[in-house]
Each structure stands twice: as structure tokens, then as C-alpha cells.
């Protein structure tokens, strides 16, 4: 689960103060079976990118469970899909920023129109792309839905042993 926020233009560096996270320090916490990390991948005068990444510890998720020996517990999408769990970890990492009280010297930047690109995902949804786009367009956002092209570089049939014959001698 990942959230990226990228600011481009005048005052981009101020984003770190508005988020209340020092770009020199990696935010790395273990929280109820999840590892929460926040780091700046770009930090320049006119461009800043911050990434919040959350990944579960599959072992921790099943500890003390009555079905501890059921292997299907390890097969889930929690690691890959943005969900309400992810939203709670955004709150833990960015709680100071979300309280809406920036330091005095940065109040003027609260209303500054930053050129922002916000990405999150992956997202699992049964909604058609058009509905998702309409949802965000109504809020004034331009929405781009990206999917990775899957290009398998091997032939599954060529790797199968079903077509091979083996001879054994007695």
C-alpha cells in the first residue's frame, strides 16, 4: 500500500513543513503487525516527492489466531491493496499535519496553490473506470488510471513436463 505526494514549483520544499516530517529523517515504525515508512525520494527547491509505504507482516497478522495452521491466512491481498487499514496508518504517520495547525511561519503556505500529483495504490475495485474518474472529476481532480502491462517472457507449455516422456530401465 503506497501513497505518493509530489509538489512541483515555487515553495515545493515547504511541503515538508506542512506535512510536519523532516526530509532528513526516515519515518519507520512497526504498528500492530504493519510496517509504516515515510521518506522523501526527491527534495529540491522546486520539486519534492514524499512516499508513505505500508506493508503487513504476514506472520504477525496470524499470531494468536485459532486457525494458526491454516495456510490460506497467508494468501491475502492486504499487502497489495489500499484499504481502510491503510488510511489509519496515514493518520499515524501524518497526524501532526492532519491536525490543521501548521507552525506560525508556514500559515501563508496553507492556501498556496501547489502543483500536486497524488498517487495511491494499487486499488482493488469492482467499479468501472468511468465511475472512478467521475468521482474524482467531481472533486476537481484530473484522474489517470494506470495498469501495468503484463508481458510473460516464457511459454508456459514449453516449461510443462506433461509433454515429456521418460524411459526407465529395469
Give the structure's gist in a few sentences.
This protein is an alpha+beta fold and about 170 residues long. About 20% of the residues lie in helices and about 25% in strands.
Q: Any key phrases for this structure?
A:
alpha+beta; c-terminal autoproteolytic domain of nucleoporin nup98; five-stranded antiparallel beta sheet; 4 helices; 5 strands; 21% helix; globular; disordered C terminus
Structure description:
The protein is α+β, with helices and mostly antiparallel strands and 170 residues long. It has one domain: c-terminal autoproteolytic domain of nucleoporin nup98, CATH 3.30.1610.20. It is 21% helix and 24% strand. It is built from four helices and five strands, in the order E-H-E-E-E-H-H-E-H. It has helices at residues 14-18, 58-62, 84-98, 129-138; strands spanning 2-8, 27-31, 34-44, 47-56, 115-121. Strands 2-3-4-1-5 form a five-stranded antiparallel β-sheet. Strand 2 (27-31) and strand 3 (34-44) form a beta hairpin. Residues 160-168 have low confidence and may be disordered.
Uncertain segments of ≥5 residues (pLDDT<50)? 160-168
- Under CATH, the topology is which? c-terminal autoproteolytic domain of nucleoporin nup98
* Major sheet attributes: 5 strands, antiparallel
CATH architecture: 2-Layer Sandwich
Inertia-based shape: globular
The CATH homologous superfamily is called Hen1, N-terminal domain
- Strand proportion: 15-25%
CATH class equals Alpha Beta
Percent range of helical residues: 10-25%
CA-based gyration radius: 22 Å
